[in-house]
Write a structure and sequence with these properties.
Distance between the termini: 37 Å
Strand order of the largest sheet: 3-2-1-9-10
Structural class: alpha/beta
Low-confidence stretches: none
Organism: Flavobacterium ginsengisoli
Pfam families: Metallophos
Protein name: Metallophosphoesterase family protein
Domain Calcineurin-like phosphoesterase: 1-158
Mean pLDDT: 97
Radius of gyration: 17 Å
Length: 244
């Protein structure tokens, strides 16, 4: 029995199927999805169908991403703090087109799935799984603004800028990096720093390898740190733009 974490999928069902196969995932394994299942490639609806089915077969933990929340807001006609035009340009267009083809009944099952996503998951080894990050120095249970779980970028930016020579007991060491044994995130693609594989800084592991753009999708064994990747998404969906 293994535990895997999967980065941002962004409508790339073909990539998701590839990594599940390449990692030889079985129904005995636990799968932790870091969010952003939608917005980008053309199969957002199919990705959610796949996850709903997968959850019926094995232990799956599905974290809420910012794009999942945006899609839920759109499906439920909530427009407070929601710039639909910006969302449309950043992957929402493909999602809107996908939902135009399905029944209201299926749409309701997707709304239920999106409503029940978790803000974060903390396992029994004090390993945190969250889409974007958190800002409270004492950890996620004390976070005042829950939206930061799927919008924050400061956790990753701080991890990247941290002097690797700084020791954990130094007064200047960021307290956020002392709360958990490990933190697994997506949200900010490592392609922004020229990488296409998972990147570890301090206790933070970033598993978003740019599947929304021209990178692969990644699945990582959280115990061994072995990982498997799909083909780059722009090659799998060669006739689409994704979020490029």
């Amino acid at each position: 029995m293994r535990t895997f974490v999967i980065g941002d999928i962004h409508g790339g069902l073909l990539a998701l199927e590839q990594v599940i196969e390449r990692a030889k995932v079985t129904t005995e394994d636990t799968l932790i999805f870091l969010g952003d299942y939608v917005d980008g490639w053309s199969q957002s609806v199919e990705v959610i169908d796949y996850l709903i089915d997968l959850k019926s077969k094995q232990n799956c933990i599905c974290i809420r991403g910012n794009h999942d929340q945006l899609t839920l807001d759109w499906l439920e006609n909530r427009h407070d703090d929601f710039d639909e035009e910006t969302w449309y340009k950043h992957g929402g267009k493909a999602t809107v087109e996908g939902y135009a083809k399905i029944s209201e009944e299926k749409k309701r099952t997707h709304i239920e799935f999106l409503e029940n996503l978790q803000d974060y998951y903390l396992d029994d080894q004090n390993r945190l799984f969250v889409h974007a990050g958190f800002t409270n120095l004492n950890g996620v249970k004390w976070e005042y603004f829950s939206k930061l779980f799927y919008w924050d970028r400061t956790l990753w930016e701080t991890a990247l800028s941290l002097d690797p020579k700084l020791k954990i007991d130094d007064l200047h060491y960021p307290k956020r990096f002392t709360v958990y044994k490990e933190v697994y995130i997506g949200h900010t693609p490592v392609t922004r720093i020229g990488e296409t594989v998972p990147v570890n800084r301090a206790c933070v592991w970033n598993v978003d390898t740019g599947a929304a753009f021209r990178g692969p999708l990644t699945i990582l064994d959280v115990d061994t740190k072995e990982y498997w990747q799909s083909e780059p998404l722009n090659e799998l969906y060669f006739n689409e733009k994704g979020r490029n």
